[in-house]
Amino acid sequence: MESEDVWEQAKQKWAEAQQQNDPEQRNLLLVTLFGRITSHRDCTALLDRLKDELHVPLPVPGGDGFS
Question: What is the pTM of this model?
Fold first, then answer.
């Protein structure tokens, strides 16, 4: 799958997650979102776009929270 396709799916999942009132459903959408991105060859660039353009709080590697 191309980076732009993954990016469009990520934007859609993030919008869905923000609309969820149920924390479990929101977390499930976020896990799906991160799973699709981290399995992509352009993972770092896509994660940077999530953080910079959509202001998605990303898990901090080796940390105990989100950036």
Answer: 0.68
Mutual angle of helices 3-19 and 23-38, in 10-degree steps: 170
Q: What is the pLDDT of residue 57?
A: 77
Angular region, 2: left φ>0, alpha ψ -120 to 50, beta rest: beta
Helices and strands counted in the chain (H then E): 3, 0
Instruction: Please tell me the distance from the alpha carbon of residue 60 to that of residue 63, in angstroms, as a whole number.
Output: 5
Q: Phi, psi at residue 7, to the nearest 5°? A: -60, -45
- Each residue's pLDDT tens digit, 45-66: 888 888 898 888 776 666 555 5
